Each structure stands twice: as structure tokens, then as C-alpha cells.
Amino acid sequence: MANAVLLVLSMTIGLFFVLMGLIKLTPVFSEDVYREMRKVFIRSAKVFPLVAQTGWKPNPHIFRRVVGTTEVVCGILLAIVPGPIKEIANVILFGMMCGAVYIHFALKDGIEKMTPALVFGLLLGCRFIVHLQVKAREARQAREAEAQVETKKEQ
């Protein structure tokens, strides 16, 4: 059951990030949304999280392209690719959602602008927790099976 939940969460979240990344990269879905996304990144670059420490501000258009490309790539990895690469994509996307919440907070955008990043950050966190639970259960079952084999050998 947990594996099914993990699969559905991975595919749903992954496809969402592919869609959102494509919206940041191209006007293929909506010219208005694409233009709005460009404006958001122009504002976001001003409060980039590491500006105070490094003094470096990213070019807003490159920042948008990097975020969009990362979302598309990690979304595909999360939706399709099995194994530890999927967990790396999960952690990268979770970090990006934390950054998005920070940026909206720094811009004083309000909770309505933060909500998508909060919700998908929580979903990514839940997905990772379910993954850890599945791994722990599989390890426990493997130990129990090994103990049963040892018990049968002793008899």
C-alpha cells in the first residue's frame, strides 16, 4: 500500500513540477502567465537568499531559466526514474520550495502567493517521509526473513 502511495505521490508531484517548469521556460501554455512569471522573477532576484552573504544577485532571466529547467528535470526524475536519483530530485525540489517561501516572505507577498510553495513543499516532505518508512519496513522484513532462515538452519 505504501509503495502505491509513494508511486502516486511521485508521479503527481513530478508532473506538477514539469508543468510549472515549462510555464517558467516557455509561453506554450499561456503568454500572460509566462509574462507574469518573468515579472515575479525580476522581483525575486532582488531578495535572492544569498545576497547578504555574497553580495551577488542573479540575473532574473537566468534565475528563472535555471529554476524552470531544474523543476522540469527534477520533475521528470521524480515521476519516472526509480532509485536514489528520485530521492535526490525530491530533496532538490524541497530546497527550492523552501527558497520560494523565503522569497515570497521577503517580498511581503502574503500567504496567497506562498501557498503553492508551502503545499508542494509539504507534499515533497510527506513523500520523503513515506519513502523512509517504506525503506525501514523493507529492511525490517529482510532482517526477519534472515532470522527465520537462521532459525531453520539451527533446527
UniProtKB/TrEMBL annotation:
Localization annotation: Cytoplasmic vesicle; Endoplasmic reticulum membrane; Peroxisome membrane
Transmembrane recorded as keyword: yes
Database matches in Pfam families: DoxX_2
Superkingdom per UniProt: Eukaryota
Name of the protein described by the UniProt record: Novel acetylcholine receptor chaperone
Source species of the chain: Ridgeia piscesae
UniProtKB keywords: Chaperone, Cytoplasmic vesicle, Endoplasmic reticulum, Membrane, Peroxisome, Transmembrane, Transmembrane helix
Family from the record: Belongs to the DoxX family.
Entry-linked PANTHER family: NOVEL ACETYLCHOLINE RECEPTOR CHAPERONE, SPINAL CORD EXPRESSION PROTEIN 4
GO biological process, one term: positive regulation of protein localization to cell surface
Stretch forming the signal peptide: none
GO CC list: cytoplasmic vesicle; endoplasmic reticulum membrane; peroxisomal membrane
Membrane-traversing stretches: 62-81, 88-105, 117-134
Membrane topology, from the record: Multi-pass membrane protein
